Please model this.
Amino acid sequence: MPTEERCFDVTASHQRLRVLLVEDTMDDALLVKTALLQAGNFEIVLAQDGDQAIEALAKGEWALALVDLNLPGQDGIEVIKEAARLHPDLPVIAITTYTGQVYHDQAFRVGAKYVLSKPLDKDELLSRVSEFIELGGTREPTRPGSVIAVGARPGDIEIGCAGSLIHHVESGQDVTILVIAGGSLDGSDCLSTAAQKAADQLGGRLMFGDVVEPGGMNIRGAAKVLLGLIEEMKPSVIYMPSENDREQNRINTFRVCTTAGSDVDQLLAYEGPTSSMEYKPTMLRPVSSYLKAKMDAVSAYENCNLKNVSRDYVMAAARYWSRFDDEPLVEPLEDVRARGV
Model:
């Protein structure tokens, strides 16, 4: 399996999975250890400073590493660097009390695949761990959950999360694409036709909401449509525009999604055509295997004159965010609940 897909993979194992926990605060170490041992068949090895962690990395093989950034001895950034050097395929989750985005960016840059903020939440911890390894096979296998991707306007979803959606489809999950804008914004059929073509290329079902007029959107109507879709699909994840955007309809779409999707397991905000400089992803998903298909979907809009909806924009964004990762092409996503929404 290509390494660029590993962020999405759940690898089954009937053996005890060795997890390196690098944490000097005993309360947090106990929380993590207890949660993992209750959830699955793990062997947890605790290192209480960076020097111990680097020694452990050199001596063994690991299924996962959880690394606090603020450590005595070598700090967490150095530990993650060494993990990437010794075990290039080892998924590393960074843990931090630091709130500045610069610390998150630095963790991504040296090889972390996710950053968890303290105080740790048990459910979020287990959810993130399960993105990388099977929780010990202690739960009955379930049918892959369905996925809903919501865009304020045609082109949003293709730019923001098409790579992720392609993987969901290939994994056997049902993907529904909801475009709040509905038909064309300029009175032609270009956008609605392009949206259907793009959805067909991605392998998802397309739905339109109420048409968004230039002055605003029907928030109540959009919420009603989305609530009905959630009731029908029972999704495990909803993708949505980020709140950090320069366009009010996309901000409103974010608010509709976070309200209507309050009981959905995971809410992920993607970078859209008008996202602002305040957009701060918490995860970077490798999409090298899916980038061509993503750009093909975006190409459906090539005659619709949409700003930033182009193959060049897709490639530029994938390369821009890859500077924080060891993968050449990535899709940035913001875990909405990790931001406290």
Summary: The two ends are 35 Å apart (CA to CA). The first strand starts at residue 17 and ends at 22. Residues 1-14, 136-143 have pLDDT under 50 and may be disordered. The chain has two domains: 15-130, 146-339.
